[in-house]
Amino acid sequence: MSATALLDRNPDPSRQEVAEAICGNVCRCTGYEPIITAVLTAAERRREATAEPSTPETGTPGPGTPETAGADR
Predict the structure, then answer these.
(1) What φ, ψ does residue 22 adopt, rounded to 5°?
(2) pTM flag (> 0.70)
(3) pLDDT tens digit string along 18-72?
(4) What span, in angstroms and rounded, lies between the C-alpha atoms of 63 and 41?
(5) What share of the chain is helix, strand, coil (3-state, %, to 5)?
(6) 53, 51, 42, 34: which is closest to 12 by C-alpha?
(7) Count of alpha carbons within 13 Å of 54, Cβ hemisphere only?
């Protein structure tokens, strides 16, 4: 939940910002690195998902076009 709150207010956090956001509520037995990497990956994927859809000029189908509609099902 802390990571989601961070990404909601800052879609492009630094490694340090992620570490600070999760420092108070993470089990330290596995270390922070895999968790920090996962949060940074989630941030990147969120940014990609919210990027402007492609236009017909680029030749890449945008969301909801027949080529991509239902692709996630």
Answers:
(1) -105, 0
(2) no
(3) 999 998 876 767 788 888 999 999 999 999 999 877 656 655 555 555 554 555 4
(4) 21
(5) 50, 0, 50
(6) 42
(7) 12
